[in-house]
Write a structure and sequence with these properties.
Helices cover about 40% and strands about 15% of the residues. By secondary structure, it is α/β, with parallel strands linked by helices. It has a single domain (about 10-245), classed as Rossmann fold (3-Layer(aba) Sandwich), CATH 3.40.50.720. Strands 3-2-1-4-5-6-7-8 form an 8-stranded mixed beta sheet, with helices on both faces. The chain is globular, with a radius of gyration of 18 Å. Residues about 245-255 have low confidence and may be disordered.
Amino acid sequence: MNRDEAERYLRQLAFSGIGQKGQGRLKKASAAIVGMGALGSAIANSLCRAGFGFLRLIDADVVEASNLQRQILYNEEDARLKRKKAVCAKEKLASTNSLVRLEAITEKLDAQNADKLLSGVDMVLDGLDNFDTRFVINEYCVKNAVPYIYGGVLADSGVSMNIMPGGPCLGCIVSSLVDAKSGPGPETKGVLNQIVAIIAAIQSVEAMKLAVKSRFLRRSLLSFSIWDFSFTEIEVEPRKDCFCQKSVDFMDQKF
């Protein structure tokens, strides 16, 4: 580690859970962040500042004025020009930490391009607001034994779970894609930017724990509400009838 790195990560190096060995592992770590909206931009900001070696930023959308209340990497000029979120995020992050390699992908992730867009990374992080794309990620990660850090927010509440090879996946939580899409969305229920910050922080620290091989990696489904300040943890069991795992013998894979 050179002098510039030692100075930049001074407070992180002093933390016993990371130290110099862990910082070296972070430098070698790679992640794809799918969705550069509220969660995605906060996750990318956190991991970039922490010194993740490589971040692939995936989003086809443009910045709009309604994004600025909760999407921390964008400003009014970005919204006025309707700039691509992934490109804007890469520019902002590059000026924050030039030691991190960044790739901006302005394509919408789907079943046809998932192999291309998600390959070659250690983990995938969820910055999405829709289950169609989440199940594409889940299927890819199940098939290829790639850790998937799921997260979602709505109104004042959020959820997060580490979906790991050898354990339950998104389909073990939600019985079908129809069920997942049947509930209300942010257009009607809204989203507080504070719950975004909390869930993104949880996802980011789980990514760091995964990268440094921490024994404290969380296995439960965490649900958190900030207006009444309540949270629950649920131990999710793998379902034998899980529709996401029907083509893969996921239960026999080891991480």
